[in-house]
Write a structure and sequence with these properties.
Blueprint (H helix, E strand, L loop, with lengths): L1 H5 L5 H25 L2 H31 L2 H25 L6 H8 L1 H23 L1
Helix pairs in contact: 2-3, 2-6, 3-4, 3-5
């Protein structure tokens, strides 16, 4: 199954793998941050990672809804609501709990999906270059 994903054949199981890898990446980042940094940084990474992973789940839902309704409004409506909620969550976190969350940790946590996407893309490129060259 991983071989078909790396070859570029994306199916519904890829979304589950990607979402699971996002959660694993969040656990790894929280563990590393907990080992080498302050509790405020850990809280920021955890909050940012939760926001990023929930956003990925919402994006998956919006894409399925867009394919079912065949209209881009479903996608942009869901995206607008999610972006507003993310901005609200970050603002509330910094205003009501100023000493609990680190802005740098929040930025690292929000990058969980981006880091995972870059790892998958790099693996796909290496796989294709390696096995297409052999043929």
């Amino acid at each position: 199954m991983l071989k078909t994903v790396l070859a570029g054949h994306l199916d519904p199981t890829f979304i589950r793998l990607f979402t699971g890898a996002n959660w694993v990446m969040l656990v790894i980042l929280v563990a590393l941050t907990g080992t080498f940094s302050t509790p405020q940084m850990v809280a920021g990474v955890l909050l940012g990672g939760l926001i990023a992973n929930l956003n990925c789940a919402g994006l998956d839902r919006d894409c399925k809804r867009m394919m079912r309704w065949r209209h881009m409004g479903a996608y942009f409506g869901g995206m607008a609501v999610r972006m507003g909620l993310i901005a609200l969550a970050i603002t509330v976190a910094f205003l009501y709990f100023p000493g609990i969350f680190s802005p740098v940790g929040l930025f690292i946590g929000l990058s969980v999906a981006v880091i995972n996407f870059n790892i998958v893309t790099l693996a796909m490129v290496i796989y294709r270059a390696r096995f297409k060259e052999a043929m």
